[in-house]
């Protein structure tokens, strides 16, 4: 990992042990301070104090929506007579996103320590980690780390003599993007088809097994040991007032050093590209927050900063922190074709606008991308997306609509150029030349 930038140390809230040899093993992680919070720092605090600490830190969910974590925890009812569950979302299937798997690979103990802290704060006795099924090395790492913790008395009954007990189970998904959506995830965890539920009720009130449940992203939970150790205000030394702290960004595409970087929120986007080895070629645009985030053109990239409000101000979003810049040799029509195919494939099929609309859009884009479209197809794709946006049970259809609408708006000239060469239009041009007035 790059640790310094422009003479300043970069934050290491999450990535502190990423460079450590065998940092995924308990002995090595413990020698570096893992689980040091599991004493008076944690067990002398009340649940209320811990939740307020997370509120004060300003930590926001790193799974995509950026919802304040402390606020979500405040919604979890106590004393309902039902158990409270913590479910960690390690599905990480948003195209371009590869930061959570690095935590599972390099420092699973950071996540487990974060889960013990959050479970204590929420009164949880049983917690789950829902992992994308294909992540086999990460799953093996997690299971090894959990066993090490049980053997060392860091999990199970009466952790470290504190009177607090916690069990953690790893649940493997079967590799469906939609199972990253929290309610589809809960259905899958319970053994049902991985299809989203109508909200409300929200999982905080009625989640796993119809009980109050906090669903949080891996990176969100992994930030807690640092916050508990150093305090909420120390976390605010980075970032902005409304987007405090640091964040892992996975960057792939036309930069010199693609990879995962931990940077303070609020860094200008172009500066982040420089940190990641600089642009290769001339910047054309960037998908800033995973495949569902509206695409930016080069001008937007020059204006924005890497935080929730900065990206919102240029019409996009921080999402899962998956950044994909592309240069002027790339074809925006081909990129959008690839994205629409993905969403059509991943629709769970419950809602008609999504099931039919994403497939229809994918077929139009395939035609346009193959150079066989008609000019009217460009507007048809846009209108279709505009119609199925926000009409469905979960935001998957909207996550397809945003790239469609933004790619067509920002790069319309490319869509028109590809389409102008299509046989349909060439035929029309030929006929017009041969029979002037034929198309009047
Ligand atoms: C289609 C879809 C896929 C999602 N995939 C993920 C995912 O892989 N990982 C994740 O943490 N959140 C994902 N989310 C967001 C979750 O529903 C949920 O908001 C998040 O796990 C909450 O955790 P946080 O508050 O810590 O961010 C997805 C949402 C949607 C609509
Ligand atoms: S929007 Fe799509 S993925 Fe979401 S519930 Fe409806 S059909 Fe399923």
What does this structure look like?
- It is a single chain.
- The protein contains 20 helices and eleven strands.
- The protein has 440 residues and is α/β, with parallel strands linked by helices.
- The strands form three sheets. A five-stranded mixed β-sheet has the order 8-7-11-9-10. The protein has a four-stranded parallel β-sheet with strand order 5-4-3-6, sandwiched between helices.
- Strand 9 (283-287) and strand 10 form a beta hairpin.
- The longest helix is centred in the C-terminal third of the chain and has 18 residues, at 352-369.
- The chain is globular, with a radius of gyration of 24 Å.
- The relative contact order is 0.11.
- The model is unreliable at 432-440 (pLDDT under 50).
- The protein binds flavin mononucleotide and iron/sulfur cluster (SF4).
- Flavin mononucleotide binds next to strand 6 and helix 18.
